[in-house]
Structure formats: C-alpha cells, structure tokens
C-alpha cells in the first residue's frame, strides 16, 4: 500500500467527489416523458419540454418552415407531422418568439391525404382546424389525391390542393420556406 501523501490525498478526494457529482449531473441531464407538457399556443397538441439551451433564440427571429409527410396516421392516432408542427409552434412561442413570426406549411402526399379528407380524417380534424386557426397552411399533393381518389371537395375546410407535392415545395422554397427534415 502506498503511503498517504498530500498529493495522493488530493487525487483521492477529487476522484471521490467526481463519483458523487457525476450521478447528480447526469440525472439532471436526462429527461423523460414526464417532463413534457402543454405548450402556450396550442395546449391540446404538440407537447413540449423545457430545454437549457446553450444559446437563447435570437430576439425577433422569423421562421418560414415547410413540413412534409406521406405517412398516414394509424387508426385512432394523430398524424405525427401535424403534431410536430404544433410542437414547433409551442416550443418557439414558449421561448420568446412571437407567433406572428412563425409561418408553417405542411405538404401532405401519399397515403397521408386520408388524414386531411373529411371522411377519413378521424381524430386529425380538430388538430387540423387548430393549426389552420394559427395560420399553418396545409397543402395536399393533387397527384396523390388523384391516386387515392380524394377530390378537393373531400378535403377538410381550409386544406389546400396543389398540382403536386413537388410543385408545392418548389413554390414554398421560392417564397423563402426551408424544409424541416423531421
């Protein structure tokens, strides 16, 4: 056994302290589902969690974001992309961005066209109405709608029909929207 020198005692004390502090630091860094709650703008949809950001969002930030989905929601569940748009609005308003500076569009294609059609929207109808009330554009791919035998008249009120999803994205990009990859 080595003799206890001041340097060795200091090293041992530092190691002991790190074993005590490390679990506390990692516990604070981990969050779970219980940390999510209603957002300030759309409390019924798009739950959010507080985040200790490295840098705060810039004052007066302005966002124009396009979301994209072709995945139809499962029976009795909400379309994930629609809830993601609500979450985007909630988390940015909760962190100081004016709702007027948040411009979102959701381009719907593939089987997801059924999530915005009156007959098959199921639980998504209220979420869609809420998003539209907050200025979110919901745009359906006309080609997918034609493939799935969904007409413009079949869409929920306020949902737009475009020539195609490709066209909708091109026009949104031309108007300054960026594509959200999630």
Give your account of this protein's structure.
With 182 residues, the chain is of the alpha/beta class. The chain folds into 2 domains: 6-30; 63-179, Hypothetical Protein Ychn, Chain: A. Helix content is 36%, strand content 13%. The protein is built from 5 helices and 5 strands, in the order αβαβαβαβαβ. It has helices at residues 6-29, 80-94, 124-133, 142-147, 165-174, and strands spanning 63-69, 102-108, 137-141, 160-162, 178-179. It has a 5-stranded parallel sheet, sandwiched between helices. Helix 2 (80-94) packs parallel to helix 3. The chain starts with 5 loop residues before the first helix and ends with a strand. Residues 11-28 have low confidence and may be disordered.
**What sort of overall outline do the alpha carbons produce when their principal axes are compared?**
globular
Tell me the Rg in angstroms: 23 Å
User: For the report, how would you describe the main beta sheet?
Assistant: 5 strands, parallel
CATH architecture of the largest domain: 3-Layer(aba) Sandwich
> How are helices and strands ordered from N to C?
HEHEHEHEHE
- Report how far apart the termini are: 57 Å
**Tally of alpha and pi helices:** 5
Could you give the order of strands across the largest sheet?
A: 4-3-2-1-5
What percentage of amino acids are in beta strands? 5-15%
Unreliable residue stretches: 11-28
Number of strands: 5
Provide mean pLDDT, rounded. 87
- The CATH homologous superfamily name of the largest domain equals DsrEFH-like
């Amino acid at each position: 056994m080595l003799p206890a020198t001041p340097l060795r005692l200091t090293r041992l004390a530092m190691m002991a302290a790190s074993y005590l502090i490390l679990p506390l630091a990692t516990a604070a860094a981990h969050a779970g589902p219980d940390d999510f709650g209603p957002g300030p703008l759309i409390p019924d949809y798009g739950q959010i969690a507080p985040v200790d950001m490295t840098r705060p969002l810039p004052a007066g930030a302005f966002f124009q974001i396009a979301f994209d989905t072709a995945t139809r929601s499962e029976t009795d569940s909400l379309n994930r992309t629609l809830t993601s748009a609500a979450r985007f609005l909630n988390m940015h308003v909760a962190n100081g961005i004016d709702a007027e500076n948040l411009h979102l569009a959701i381009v719907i294609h593939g089987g997801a066209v059924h999530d915005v059609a009156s007959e098959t929207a199921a639980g998504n109808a209220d979420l869609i109405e809420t998003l539209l009330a907050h200025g979110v554009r919901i745009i359906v791919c006309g080609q997918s709608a034609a493939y799935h035998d969904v007409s413009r008249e079949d869409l929920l009120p306020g949902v737009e029909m475009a020539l195609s999803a490709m066209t909708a994205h091109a026009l949104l990009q031309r108007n300054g929207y960026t594509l959200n990859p999630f």
